[in-house]
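DATA SHEET
Item: assembly model
Revision: 1
Owner: S.N.
Input lines:
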Amino acid sequence: MIINLNINGSNIKVEVKEDEYLSETLRNNGCKSVKRGCDKSTCGACTVLVDGIPVLSCSYFSHRAEGKSITTLEGVIEEAEKLGEHIINEGADQCGFCTPSLALTTISMKRELGNPTEEDIKHYINGNLCRCTGYEAQMKGIKKYLEVE
Amino acid sequence: MKVLDKKRPKILKIVNQPIPKRDGKKLVTGAAVYTDDLAPRDALIVKILRSKHHFAEILNIDTEKAEKIEGVECILTYKDVPDVRITRAGQTFPEPSPLDWKILDNYVRYIGDEVAVIAARNEEQADKAMRLIKVDYRVIEPVLDYKTAVQSKSIVHFEKDSRVNYDIGFEPEKNIASHLHFDIGDYEKGFRESEIILEREYETQATNPAMMEPVTTYTYMDEYDRMTVVSATQVPFHVRRMIANSLNIPTSRVRVKKPRIGGGFGLKQTAASEFFPALVTLKTGKAAKIYYSRKEVFLATTRRHPFLMKVKIGANRDGKIKAFDFEAISDTGAFGEHASTVIEACAEKSMAMYNKVDGYRFDATAVYTNLPSSGAFRGYGKTQGLFAVESIVNELAKEIGMDPTELRKMNLIKKGENLLLGTNHVYEDDIIRQDSCELDFLIDRGKELINWDENYPGKDMGNGKFRGVGMALSIQASGVLNIDSASATLKFNSDGFFTLLISATDMGTGCDTILSQMAAETLQVPLENIVVYAADTDVTPYDDGSYASSSTYVTGRAVVEASETIIEKLKKEVSEISHTKIDEIEYDNGVFAWGEDSISLKDLGYRLNCRQVMATGSHTCSKEAPPYKSGFALVEVDTETGKVDVLEFAGVVDCGTVINSNLCTVQTQGGILQGIGMALYEDINHDFAGREMNDSFMTYKIPTRKDSPKIMVDFAKSYEPTGPYGAKSIGEVVINAAAPAIADAIYNAIGVRFRKLPITPEKVFFALNK
Ligand code: FES
Ligand code: FES
């Protein structure tokens, strides 16, 4: 089937299978920041924004996104670089496989919550698993980016 | 042996600085850098039909219907693979692991074992074809309990062609993959003269490394008709050899490249996925790709060897430890990857910090079962052994009423003293002497961080919750003595910058960054003037790969050597250009000077335009330079639910010079959190029929942000004279000590001793409500 998507500001028509998930569609269309860590909505690596709301694209059917606006990290690259710098300065990027989705979720959190507390942050990004860093340095970087005390 | 001490620079500019990871920006912004991001769009999709039985003979495979599905390119079975047994372990040749594995076999040995390889144009077609393959099995009684595997009537590897490269105590007819026995010193005297002897049994479980990027590989034939393998692997050179051997093609026809790796922790040392797309590409001539599902990562790759350990300790009432006795069985699963070396690593290091004993005895057997294969996982046998040894030392402290930190200080190895032995029973003084060892500091600093004096042993919080503190120590290796080898090549470029070619594999560890730091420091150039490239077996020099905590210590030495050599070579060029004697030329901060004259690297680069100056450094690990760590836990136990919360954890590390404080700190925090996961909940269980129950992140819990306690990290001021810039390893030492420290903290909170991991709320609850 053919569906209409707005990916990072561009309207495109894409051919998808009926049971295709959005993670696959996006990766096939050049959005490689969308990673696949589990394909079972348990790791957060495939997070994208659908009409501004973070969703796990590995369990979101592509056809459900018909007519919707999708944002991947490629679409907010300037913001990602700002946040990224804080994360990198803390040494919190190890293998990096979890960081694109973490960055996108954090950017979405900033838009949604404005001024979150440490607890809010932990809660918002708890679904973004990382096996390398022990989370602490990521948190430091995120707090610096959000200018949270 | 060569000691770098004399070259110890006064002020380090680039080494020992918190330099950002060089690939950081690209990783954080989601660039296409991992294997699957780079795979060609038209690659065939490879899927694997896996065994539903623990143990069975394949009588017949009918692929006729499946082959007719549109888009199916080929379906391959055991009839289509060379009759060669190898090991997938990814170790230096000659591999210590038994050669007991075939790409496809007519026997399946665990649920998840490969039965057929399907290649199709897309995933849907491959899945459809898979469902149409009919397999007739003759089911065989499986071996499911490793504790009784030796007595089992069923033999996992009965075939005649499984063999070993050298003696590792391989007795497949008894389901023994490897057996190791030795004793050192007069341990019998030690026990005879002991005033107190404790004997305990400990058990550690199977855990999955669970790196975030699943196992993945793609392959194609290049323009010279050579097999190119692009894979998330820790060991490109070993993969090259394993692919060539298993497919019966010359090694010269195989090229292996590794892009960015999304974590490994040892799992990506044993080759799980590489063979299947390579087989398809060889048969079809077409590009092929495989991407394991998370379930396949759980079921069909490797995990930590479960260990059952019986440990005995002999001591005097004043706390002097006199002897150990250590017996273990480990479960290597269906294949013997890392079976012998994991028990060896356990034997050589678990008791190594207590070097003042009269002796110890060690006896361990790694057995085959019809469960998924065990393999390398950060900590590698020491994690298991140290859980038992550090726990029994804590129990001894309780028994004689001593503070465990004081007890340790009485018995620990000190700087300048010898380990009891080195890897593979090396006893030469200058190899096993500890030139850097700050264990006392690790203990004192850890106590400070966790507020030991106030918190020890524990207290009742008055709301059904109890707190306690506990501690343990950790030791690892820095590379495998006399085995781990690495080379590094530097290429001098026209604009005066250098290309650093290495085959250490940065899987998030940051070795591309820290090895560049070492090159920049030695060459006295800004970091930007070092371009790093890793790893491609056609281009970059030989390295075992990144495992056994070898990249900093072993590859680092190669990098320093290459840097020193290329300066000498460049001096020679300058001497020719300037008609000056070499020893009249000084090199300082990117400038060669002689008499009144000088030339910068940049100008020299242009002058040498048509002459390529290169240098390679090589190093083989030739010293026992283990890193050490102390771990201190503050826990709170909820007696109503049995839940244990780690509130704070302090890890203090002696890794010699800290090459990059940011990266070392984060590695330590990450390692500690993995250790906490292992202590409290990570576990692979099997149901009554032996089927794996933990095959997703829903059922196999790894620590999340909310589970993560405050983790405090500090480093000893330490300098290892044989390490590059005084550095030792860090990658693995940081995972150990968490489990025994937490187990002791729980004891100090509620007075119940847990000797079997993980310490789940159920276990705590039932222990309290017995
Ligand atoms: S890949 Fe979607 S949550 Fe893991
Ligand atoms: S950095 Fe590797 S998973 Fe987070």
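QC remark: Residues 42 and 655 of chain B are 46 Å apart (CA to CA).
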